Amino acid sequence: MISECANPDCRTEFDWHQGRYFRFHAVHNEEGQLCNTHGVVHFWLCGRCSQTHSLGYVEGCGAIVTLRFERAFGNHNEPAIHTI
């Protein structure tokens, strides 16, 4: 269950009226089976963070928070990445 913003620098309490939701499929193990029976993980960025950040999923690392440079800075430098 989602309880707060996925951005570790924010942690705003969950409010389903605003923000952006993310859903990622769980990574398969070496035998090709899902790591759990559900196979999907859910995250939420609050309204403020979703304007400047996005979430991605990196195999072997998990969910990551990245800056959305087009809105935040207007350029395409390397993103600041935080693992969740």
Give me the secondary-structure topology.
Elements: E1 20-25, E2 40-45, H1 47-52, E3 53-58, E4 62-67, H2 69-72, E5 81-83
**Percent helix among the residues?**
10-25%
Q: How are the strands of the largest sheet arranged? A: 3-4-5
Distance between the termini: 15 Å
Q: What class do helices, strands and sheet pairing give?
A: mainly beta
Q: What's the order of the H and E elements? A: EEHEEHE
As a whole number of angstroms, the C-alpha radius of gyration is 14 Å
Tally of domains: 1
Specify the overall morphology.
globular
Number of H- or I-type helical stretches:
2
Q: How many individual β-strands?
A: 5
| Unreliable residue runs | none
What portion of residues belong to β-strands? 25-35%
Largest sheet: 3 strands, antiparallel
Task: Report the mean per-residue pLDDT as an integer.
Answer: 78
Structure report:
It is built from two helices and five strands. With 84 residues, it is mostly beta strands. The strands form two sheets. It has a three-stranded antiparallel sheet. A two-stranded antiparallel ribbon has the order 1-2. A hairpin with a 3-residue loop joins strand 3 and strand 4. The radius of gyration is 14 Å and the shape is globular. The mean pLDDT is 78.
